[in-house]
Amino acid sequence: MLNQKNNIRPADYFKEYAKYLTHLLSNLNYHMMNEVAKLFIATARKGKTIYFAGNGGSAAAASHFATDFSHGLVGGTGELVKAVSLTDNVSLLTAIGNDHGYENIFVNQLINMLQAEDVMVLISASGNSSNVVKAAEFAKSKKAVTVALVGFDGGKLKEICDYVIHVETEKGEYGPVEDLHTILNHMLASYLILTFSKYEKV
What we know:
This protein is α/β, with parallel strands linked by helices. The chain has helices at 10-26, 30-45, 57-71, 90-100, 107-110, 130-141, 155-160, 174-196; strands at 49-54, 82-85, 119-124, 145-150, 163-166. Helix 3 (57-71) links the parallel strand 1 and strand 2 (82-85).
């Protein structure tokens, strides 16, 4: 937990923040990360799609994941990951939200796309946002695999998803959770590139 004293010097606060991130990073479940990496590799090799969704900072993370999983493997590497962020089409998100409710902005996109053995990745600090919970429930009903990247106590996503990478923090610590989710993106994306690359880049 970060120091809450108001009189802490900026440099000391920044050092404490970095120390806290190191603590969170060292306490990740690396066995679960191993399993998720294997899932992503198997999904790519079957030609299935990995979908990403989240709100706020986690919406940006969903876009970041999809970009790195797709763009990072383009160019002579052979096997590619089909990665789609459900947070990127603002017109569609606002149309669904306006007509069918914000809780349906991800489910309504999945109805005509999601297939069995696809993967649905839900990114959420609280794990409780209704739209990501509904997306997880819908994905499971379609025989897709669900992965949760969560913080705080894990929320509902921790209870219902097939794979869970949990950055365990005090409730409300959005920054450190989102920081770790970005690091997870780069860990997983770089491992996929390493796995699928057929040559050494110069």
